Amino acid sequence: MNRLAVYIVPHYDDWQLFAGHQVFHDLQQDNMRVVFIYTTADDAGQPDDWWQINEQGAIASIQSAMSRENESLTPMQVIINHHPIICYRLQYISSYCLRLPDGFPDGRGSSQYQHQSLTKLEQGLCAVSAVDGSTIYHSWQDFCDTLYSILDIEVPKNIPCTIHCLDDSALTNPNDHADHRATTHAVRQIKDQYNYCFWLTYYTYYCPANLFGEALIQKKTLFEAYLKRTEEHPYAIKMAYMRQNEWRCWGSKHYFREISHQGEIINDLTAEYRAPTVFKTELWKDHDVFFIRCVDVNEHQDGDTTCITNLFTLKSVSLNQTSVLIWSLLKHPHSVNTLLTFFEKALPNLPELQSAIENIVDILLSHQLICIQKEQ
After folding, report:
1. For residue 353, what is the enclosing H or E element?
2. Which of 254, 275, 296 is the last residue of a domain?
3. pLDDT for 112-155, tens place per residue?
4. pTM score, whole prediction
5. Beta-strand (E) ranges in the chain?
6. CATH number, domain with residue 20
7. What is the span of the domain harbouring residue 125?
8. Burial, 87: exposed, middle or buried (Cβ in 10 Å; 0-12, 13-18, 19+)?
9. Which of 171, 185, 189, 372 is 20 to 30 A from residue 327's alpha carbon, by CA?
């Protein structure tokens, strides 16, 4: 073994969706040690059997990339920083499951686990218990120290190591899950000399596909192994559309920032998207900027009102008569200027027409119902 990669994520399907091709490559290397650390149980506020089978789905993903399929990762309990933690091990592969409650996208937690979350732990609002009742983290420092202790065990001082986690920057990766941010905040407390790879998550929805051919097949192999292991659970059946939608949103995307331990940029596949142009309304006056509906957006009627919902983010708006017309036009790319030209012909006496159109576009952008397409 002469290289090591550590993936520190909150949920059991995070690395498959956002960094799957890289993980597949790492798992295939004979001279590579790969360590996974899952900070939450990814329970979604459901009863015990969901997080348990979800955990097995993550292990199935790992095994789908291993060259010797007859070998399996063996679970064992280890004591780390005075906390009992389940770890699955096989040769140079380790998976640590801290099993803290899912905090939900806004960090509020679930009633199933007394609304505990990593976000609240970071804010000093409460202690957090593992969902299996095995241990309690009484403070944020306690949690961070536990992550550091795992790395201290797993990472030899003379082996180059890259820590992979989810990008917590509001600039490069806006509107991310609270568990994603909190987990990476904890990783940033680690002061040792590691290289870091920060992966874009939900924001890749707005980025062009950049995985093709064998690389895409490899990533999909991991995600499908996770789905297959969990698909018969009632909650998975209920959420089947949403889980397939996750692949449609992010499956063919692969964006990251790789930073050296000295703070130097090694690679930056997020450079074009660092400023989330989907929210940059000053681009309206640019003749080269066109707007179009996002993928997987639902239109439905509530009485006489037209409602538009992004099926992934669940952000929704109700449209007035002018908004409905703009929404209809945005089946195809339009700039603010082309919309303005259309309305000037159809409604020549409407006062402050440009301001009205810009306000509607602003609402549709901020609710992630339309996105920017720079070339028509």
Report:
1. helix 353-366
2. 275
3. 999 999 999 999 999 999 999 999 999 999 999 999 999 999 99
4. 0.76
5. 3-9, 32-40, 74-80, 83-90, 93-100, 128-129, 136-137, 161-166, 195-199, 256-259, 265-268, 290-293, 297-302, 305-310, 316-319, 370-373
6. 3.40.50
7. 3-275
8. buried
9. 171
